[in-house]
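Suppose a colleague, Dr. K., hands you the sequence of a protein chain of 202 amino acids and asks what its three-dimensional shape might be. Before reaching for any lab equipment, you can write down a predicted structure in token form. Begin with the sequence itself:
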Amino acid sequence: EQLLAQIADEMDRLNRRGKVLACHLTYWTGKAPAPIHPKHLVRLPWREAQFDFLQPADCVLDLGCGNGGHSVEIGRRAALVLAIDGDVGQLAIAGGRLEQASLDDRVILLAADLEKPSAWRFVGTGMWDAVVFLDTVEHLKNPQIVLHEIHRALRPHGLLLISAPNQETQWRHRLREAGLDARHDPDHKREYTQQQFLWTLI
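The predicted structure, expressed as tokens, is then:
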């Protein structure tokens, strides 16, 4: 039993370090201008299809915009985008992407911590047609604070596009059964079952 426990501990350590290494490899191999999880480099048609709900006249908040991958797609579809993230390095990459796509006049970047009141000072109340909040809620210590601010920022009948990692996949179950870290990303504060996710939004 002691040997099995040691093996499990070592596998868990490798599993955790492997995810960190994967982030650095994207930078070392030239796939990204800064370390980033490989999942953010993959274009997912089903995810981009969500942006088709946006209208050309829409004003959109892109929360947790990161390196601007989503911001570019949103900017191609909407009239105005305010993209917010707390990572200045990732925002610099986003700025380059937007400039390359000739969208830097339509997408405004703001460096701010979404969990602090100061981030919402420039957002206003009932001003936004849509909020894009993809794969960000799992990084927050207090998601309810941010969800409350989103509700305040949206116009009546405004659109919220939100997603989070699924805790219930077969692979995640296998990792947990093996006693390993089953999170998609080491920085995730929480991951959700479908029911938990829906309850969070109520």
